[in-house]
């Protein structure tokens, strides 16, 4: 089976309404956190910083120490089953303006409950719920 590895981050910013979380709309239609494939020689956190910059234009990222978790799934591409693992961190930013790349259709900043409802996949929701318990 083909194996794929990505790294990503739940990103939040403080607003007058409390913490707002960033979700992206992927080309296949799902809503998920910022993530991307790990390039050779990168640490997970280097991947995350690069992907955040490329996919959102955000550069002022601070990692919240102590949170690291993983989402796993299978999907099919060109008739091949791919097993994918995505390592996730938690980080915050003071930037609200997002500059999307060609890789996504849309973005949104949502409260915890709205973001939980918007996330397409149960596995991502499960990871996100652990953040509320922090
Ligand atoms: P990356 O952001 O890591 O470069 P990508 O844009 O290539 O990823 P994914 O978001 O991993 O692609 O989506 C690839 C396929 O897996 C899509 O068909 C998507 O619907 C599906 N998928 C994405 N996340 C999950 C998940 N948590 N559970 C199950 N299937 C998922």
Write a structural description.
By secondary structure, the chain is α+β, with helices and mostly antiparallel strands. The protein has a single domain (2-132), classed as Nucleoside Triphosphate Pyrophosphohydrolase (Alpha-Beta Complex). Helices cover 23% and strands 46% of the residues. The protein has three helices and seven strands. The chain has helices spanning 44-56, 112-118, 122-132, and strands at residues 2-15, 18-25, 31-32, 34-37, 62-77, 80-92, 106-110. Strands 1, 2, 3, 4, 5, 6 and 7 form a seven-stranded mixed sheet that branches. 26% of the residues are buried. The chain binds adenosine-5'-triphosphate. Adenosine-5'-triphosphate binds next to strand 4, strand 5 and helix 3.
State the low-pLDDT regions, or none. Answer: none
Q: Fraction of residues in helices? A: 10-25%
What gross morphology would you assign? Answer: globular
Radius of gyration: 14 Å
Topology:
Elements: E1 2-15, E2 18-25, E3 31-32, E4 34-37, H1 44-56, E5 62-77, E6 80-92, E7 106-110, H2 112-118, H3 122-132
Parallel strand pairs: 1-6
Antiparallel strand pairs: 1-2, 1-4, 2-3, 2-7, 5-6
The structure holds adenosine-5'-triphosphate (ATP).
Summary tags:
134 residues; alpha+beta; Nucleoside Triphosphate Pyrophosphohydrolase; 7-stranded mixed sheet; 7 strands; 23% helix; 46% strand; globular; binds adenosine-5'-triphosphate; Nudix_hydrolase; nucleotide-binding; hydrolase; nucleotide binding
Briefly characterize the structure.
InterPro entries: Nudix_hydrolase, NUDIX_hydrolase-like_dom_sf, NUDIX_hydrolase_CS, NUDIX_hydrolase_dom, Nudix_hydrolase_domain, Tetra_PHTase. The protein has 134 residues and is an alpha+beta fold. The chain has helices spanning 44-56, 112-118, 122-132; strands at 2-15, 18-25, 31-32, 34-37, 62-77, 80-92, 106-110.
């Amino acid at each position: 089976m083909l194996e794929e590895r990505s790294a990503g981050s739940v990103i939040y910013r403080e607003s007058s309404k409390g913490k707002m979380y960033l979700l992206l709309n992927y080309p296949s239609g799902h809503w998920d956190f910022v993530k991307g494939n790990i390039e050779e020689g990168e640490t997970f956190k280097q991947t995350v910083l690069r992907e955040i910059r490329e996919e959102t234009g955000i550069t002022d990222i601070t990692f919240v120490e102590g949170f690291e978790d993983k989402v796993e799934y299978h999907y099919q591409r060109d008739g091949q089953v791919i097993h994918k693992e995505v390592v996730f961190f938690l980080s915050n930013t003071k930037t609200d303006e997002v500059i999307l790349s060609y890789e996504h259709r849309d973005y949104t900043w949502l409260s915890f409950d709205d973001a939980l409802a918007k996330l397409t996949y149960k596995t991502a929701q499960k990871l996100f719920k652990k953040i509320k318990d922090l």
